[in-house]
Amino acid sequence: MTGPADATFADGTRRRPPEVALYGLTPAVEQAILDAVDAGRPNQIRGLIRPLHPADVADLLSRLDVNRRRAAIEAIRTRFDPEILPYLDEAVREDVFEVMGTRDVAAALTELDSDDAVDLMTDLGEEDRHRLLEAVPAAESVVLEQGLTYPEYSAGRLMQREVVAVPTHWTVGQTIDFMRTEAELPENFQEIYVVSAGNRLDGVILLSRLLRSKRPVRVADIMATEPRSVPPATDQEEVAQMFRRYGLVSTPVVDENGRLLGRITVDDIVDVIDEEAEDDLLKLGGVSESDIASGLVETARARFVWLLVNLATAFVAASVIHMFEDTIEQVVALAVLAPIVASMGGNAGTQSLTVAVRALAMREIGRTNALRVIVKEGALGIINGALFGAIVGLVAYAWFGRPMLGVVIGLALILNLLAAGLAGMTIPLILERLGVDPAVASGVFLTTVTDVVGFFAFLGLATWLIL
Description:
The chain has 467 residues and is mainly α. Helix content is 65%, strand content 7%. β6 (250-254) and β7 (260-265) form a beta hairpin.
């Protein structure tokens, strides 16, 4: 069945029109909040924002310019929902912290799960972090400081300290009664950890299995005795791979002695996967996630370095063209057709590069299959080069009436697409082996290879075969 908000489209399907949002932040609500901010009506702002989910409020604050954002934060600061903070981008979060002040931010941190609170503290400067640690109660401060001792992007930073743990000698009935009466349980959990003396993790019980068991049964008799656990120093990407491979909902974090420290839940892993994918995508383009929210000068400064590197590689390609200056003067058509060779190589190389970076991120490529994948990309380069070389060669012949010119550009495309396929696959592998992030540096090297090989092959073949 379809509701009144659904619409029938030309392809016969029924879908919700884009202007009808599935969640609370509809365009109409957003515009109403914007009007209230511009009119300086804080009561109306609070009334419009109160029903929204924290993620929607964070989305709204991210879209506002700095002045409007601060006005909106000031309007809701007395009833600010701490759950908004984890959804905010770092640049927007700085504005929120500045408006709220240390005391209100510290109070908000104490209301969050420990993993979210530690994550927020990670993004702060040393001075701001110290000031907040002094403002929160001693118990929360100890938890936060302990979390910050683990390496960044590790399981220790991701883990939530709030867990449900029971001793091995308890029964199902005792465990159920404990969960009914204990006020400090996590808000959401699917697993109960069974621990022995010294908080050593002995097993895990799914909540569904516990509820299906009879009360007199001991938890030790129904627990899984070999749970998949991770040490706190494990890189978050490895944890994400484990969740993805085994379909986990949560996993315990244990120290070298097997003592239970906390748990990592799938919602945090979704964030990790999203952040890693976004980070690789942005690095390929030489931009950062804060570009939308950052100021003009800050964004320009961040992009300048990347563009400067690309300018240096462009001069390398230009020097190759300069080597064949006499050839170009005699056959002007070469100057018209040369960009085609470089452009096709760059695009083909980008395809191989994207496949390689993704495969490395997903751990789908290694010593056993690296050579096979490289050979495959080289073969694809030859096949596509031959096909497009024939097409462009015929076009060049029809355009300029010189058959040998068509042969030259056809051969150049085969060579450049072969080089592009090999470079797009091998450059990330080499950088990975050297400990350099392939998403950051691969694009620069690939562009240099395809430009230099493309121009050199095209102009070199023209000098040899035409002149």
